[in-house]
Known about the structure:
This protein is an alpha/beta fold. 29% of the residues lie in helices and 26% in strands. The chain has a single domain, classed as 3-Layer(aba) Sandwich (Rossmann fold). It has helices at residues 3-20, 27-35, 67-77, 94-102, 113-125, 162-166, and strands at residues 56-59, 62-64, 84-88, 105-110, 131-135, 148-153, 168-178, 185-193, 196-205. A seven-stranded mixed sheet has the order 5-4-3-6-7-8-9. A two-stranded antiparallel sheet has the order 1-2. The N and C termini lie far apart (33 Å). The model is unreliable at 218-225 (pLDDT under 50).
Amino acid sequence: MDDAGKLADRRLRMVEDQIVYRGVTDTDVVAAMRSVPRHLFVPPEREGEAYADEALPIGHGQTISQPYMVALMTQLLRLDVRKKILDVGSGSGYQTAVLCELAGEVFAVERIPELADRSRVVLEKLGYDNVTVITGDGTLGLPEQAPFDGILVAAAAPEAPRPLLQQLADGGRLVVPLGPLHREQTLTVFTRAGASFRRDEHVYCRFVPLIGEEGLGGTQGDGAV
Length: 225
């Protein structure tokens, strides 16, 4: 088996052992995780670790999320091809690619220009034509593109940023880790119903801080640590 075949085999085993085994049941999400080559989103020297059950550094003090967390957050969005999605703190672009497999249109915002540029190149190489990568402050959302059917935030805040809640469509879902910095947080889903929001808490997690005008100080990244 050549290197490409070995990587593909490891990706399939990752999905079975880390994602399906842990209870991710959405068949479309599972298929997307099988499809997206995570090794293309990590630094070349980390390729051998690309399908490990952990977050990995991608430079600039940032990380690519643990595969299970990517799958779970994606499942919680309840995506289909009719939906427009905002990916905040898109980092390496791996989560973005998974969203592109399932949603009609994806807007990805990353505050670090080098990461945004690198992810844009990889996403284009993979043929995703339903994504726009923007360098900027994701905590403010993209009001000119709102409303969004789903918003995914891959960094932690004490509470959901108000601009992101305001930019949700009626029935839209915001998935965000909430809690104190550098400690355990809770993956939380806000579902909009008119002017109100239902809040549902899910698993414990640990993410880097959300940076920006409506975020926190520290280092923002695209994944759990």
